[in-house]
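Troubleshooting log. The previous structure file for this entry was overwritten by mistake, so regenerating from the original sequence record. Sequence copied from the archived sheet and checked twice against the printout by T.R.
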Amino acid sequence: MSTEANQGQPNAHPSTKSEMEGPVLRPHIFDGIQEYDQRLPNWWLWTLYIAIIWTFISWIWEFQLSRPLNMATTDHQRVDTEVAAVKKQQADNMLKILNTLDDSRFWAMSQDKELIARGQMTFDTICAACHAKDMSATMPGGVKLPGLPLNDKEWQYGAKPMDIFKVVSKGSPDASKGMIAWEPQFGGVKVAEVVAYILSTHQRGDGDIAQ
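Regenerated output below.
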């Protein structure tokens, strides 16, 4: 029978392993296409079986045992624990630094560009509302802000860097109208960064700023 006569009809002589050495094909034909009828390799089958078994065991452990019975920590708990440990380490390190602060150390900090950048970010976000970003304590047009100017050479509550740090940390000695204590909100580290930033706009020994 010719090829034209067989076109579109089921294969009258399906291929089998005994009839050919190539791939085994299914007997039906659709649009001239035949399907392979090969057995999947053992390595592929075993990979599938192991994946199914592993998925089932993991599901049992994760959703039926560990979480309901609190037998293992969740990802969120592990992340929270690690973040808390990092924050504690940072706090401990900064506490050591704060315990060694003095005027000379503040002047050294005022030369640290990275530290000054962090202090400026806090100052521009929070402190500028009362002192202005240029530390003049005035708005454009000459409107006076409630804070004292920090860009001049006069310091109302002490000119030493540690005096400034004390005022920012503990608040103004005049609690009725002065600045509030920022240490409870910022923490000692950010307060020190802000003071270092303020000092960076002055020169050591500049005016009434004591050395």
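The helical segments are 3-6, 42-66, 75-99, 103-109, 113-131, 161-170, 183-186, 188-200. Archived copy saved in two places this time.
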